[in-house]
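Appendix B. One record, verbatim.
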Amino acid sequence: MPSILITPPAAEPLTLAEAKAWLRVEHDDDDAVISSLITGARSLVEQDTSRALITQTWRVVRDTWPASGRLDVLPAPLRQVLAARVYDAAGVAQTIDADMFTLATGGAPGVLGFLPGSLSQPGRALAGIEIDIEVGFGADGSAVPEPLRQAIRLLVAHGYENRGGETTNNARMPMTVAALIAPYRVLAL
């Protein structure tokens, strides 16, 4: 089951002032357009890398606990478990102590480890487990890897320059951007 965004980022990895400086825009007429381009660029980079750039809260929903005691979670990077619940047969949530999990935060996907058999199985067949996690590189753009920030700058510039309609290149993103984010992609095997 997919992860669900609960709390979006409170900031963007690139400020409006930084984007305007990159674009060499000195007026305020296009501030709303540039701001939406920043948000769109961040969203595209996050989607293509399965990473959260700025701190966010997501809910991981599963039907059962894996027998391996290992639960891979995306988006990455994993920062902490905020809350965990398992639903009984009556649909009542039973709280799980977040300390029951061991976190592997360095890689992508993040890993929630637990002792197999230590957590009660859900009483309902679908979506019986909910784990709220905090993910992201940090609360502002300073913690985001520079290649990803550069990819956002290039996407903002591309969008700003081509906002009048279709471009001659039907590619989803410029090749330079694809090259910058390639090392950060999480590939499904």
